[in-house]
Amino acid sequence: MRITGGQVFDLEQGFLARDLCTDGPLISAANGDETVLDASGCYVIPGLVDVHFHGAVGEDFSDATPEGLQKIADYELSQGVTYLCPAGMTLPEDQLTAICKTTAAHRAKNAGGAEVVGAHLEGPFLCMAKKGAQNGAFLHDPDIPMLKRLQEAAEGCVKLVTIAPEQPGAMEFIREAVAMGIAISLGHTTADYDTAKAAYAAGADHATHTYNAMPPFAHRNPGVIGAAFDSGAFAELICDGVHIHPSVVRATFQLFGKERMVLVSDTMRAAGMPDGDYTLGGQAVIVKGPLCTLEDGKTIAGSATNLMNCMRTSVSFGIPLADAVRACTFNPARSIGIEDRVGTLDLGKEASAVLLDQKDLSIRSIIFKGVTV
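Now predict its structure.
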């Protein structure tokens, strides 16, 4: 396939007027067949990578049903999100095991839709005071044997774990998890700067939905955010227009730089669905427009958007398009160690791309591993 006439995303130079060729599932120097796709008036960007979301179209990753995960994968691909690392919630170990087994089985089946590249365990190793929409009844101190059991059930699919570093045993847990090839993110935590800095020194390299469920970035107590900045960590940001004020989105991109920002959707099962009553990790959630809350009406419980919409929203807030694209593609891929095959449109990478209308960033075409979908 030859994609011609578009402005093609380049990690270093932004957007370039050039052709993009594919040969089967990979990007190549010459087109592998006679197919030509006209991208005139379009930006050509890599397929998006979401490393923190919970569900969509009425389905929740935490339900651990094969049918539900397939529906989620199909929906996300339709929105230009081609690679997924969905997040579980704070649940009993048997349900976490079921989530891990479902993930492994889905990957083995390869039944279509966006590729589920792994699983993100957002819990149960969190703190009670900042549990947010997590179920406090199932919180658990960091537990290395439990993590090993879950990774075995997942057949190696656990890619990212969120942890509160002030919890007993957290530092040993971080070191062991990193040795297992699992990325560690700090979140749902009351950790001060020194504790968070020690966790990053132990191998953590990520901050879960920055600003949310952690102490504020204060001038005398910089907390997790200051420690993440000083340690070179990735900073997740939910750019749905609800979780973070536009000014803070702009400031955070300036603070961390385009190389370390990771946009995430934190989507729950209400994405692609009407307003109403839903659940997230077994807890009741009320959805009204873009706002999802627990029954108290105050505790935000995920979002009802998707990562492509988050990217568009960030641009509407003043983030340069190339920086927003990078934060939804290469950076999240790098944060979980899959940047060698996805996240850019370089030669030899998987041929997953989205054509966006230059006028309004609406989707014109989606190509997934060399096939127009």
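The longest helix spans residues 93-109.
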